[in-house]
């Protein structure tokens, strides 16, 4: 197992895994510096593999389903959602997902973009195991494109990314860009 104490992402977004061969817990890293592993993982300093996140465009559409194989309640999203239940989703789990268009999404186990992360790109995911999760728990979701918008176009400070979800605060990113 490879131990990593700090990371610098020069460009793009990367999905990293705590095990080799793109297995295990996922975490998404965007442009910026991560001086210690607590910025990207609450658990340990292991990083077994990484790959770039496909940034295909700006057409985002995702459907979540209550049951496996696209059964039960269905809800569509075209934008970030910090808490699925606030949009009428009665459960704290999602068993299947269809990703349309050319956008990439990050699913979070907890509300407000917290907890374990799972990346989903265009395609059909008939079960939570298809996106690499140990359970169907999903309570918030975010478009990957938001990771690259300049701070002036981001949501208000209350919803900005911060160390609690493994990202660098906007002020730190701005100082990096000025260099």
UniProtKB/TrEMBL annotation:
It comes from Physeter macrocephalus. It comes from the Eukaryota. SMART domains: XTALbg (SM00247). Keywords: Eye lens protein, Repeat. GO terms for molecular function: structural constituent of eye lens. This is Gamma-crystallin N. Coiled coil: none annotated. Belongs to the beta/gamma-crystallin family. The keyword Protein transport does not apply. Monomer. Crystallins are the dominant structural components of the vertebrate eye lens.
């Amino acid at each position: 197992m490879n131990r990593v104490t700090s990371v610098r992402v020069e460009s793009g977004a990367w999905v990293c895994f705590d095990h080799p061969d793109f297995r295990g817990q996922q975490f998404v890293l965007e442009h910026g510096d991560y001086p210690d592993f607590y910025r990207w993982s609450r658990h340990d300093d292991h990083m077994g593999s990484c790959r770039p996140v496909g940034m295909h465009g700006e057409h985002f559409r995702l459907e979540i389903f209550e049951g496996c194989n696209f059964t039960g309640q269905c809800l569509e999203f075209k934008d970030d959602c910090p808490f699925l239940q606030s949009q009428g989703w009665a459960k704290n789990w999602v068993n299947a997902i269809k990703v349309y268009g050319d956008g990439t999404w990050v699913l979070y186990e907890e509300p407000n973009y917290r907890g374990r992360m799972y990346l989903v790109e265009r395609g059909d995911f008939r079960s939570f195991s298809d996106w690499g999760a140990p359970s169907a728990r999903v309570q918030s979701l975010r478009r990957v494109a938001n990771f690259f918008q300049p701070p002036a176009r981001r949501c208000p400070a209350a919803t900005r990314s911060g160390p609690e979800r493994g990202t660098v605060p906007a002020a730190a990113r701005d100082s990096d860009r000025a260099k």
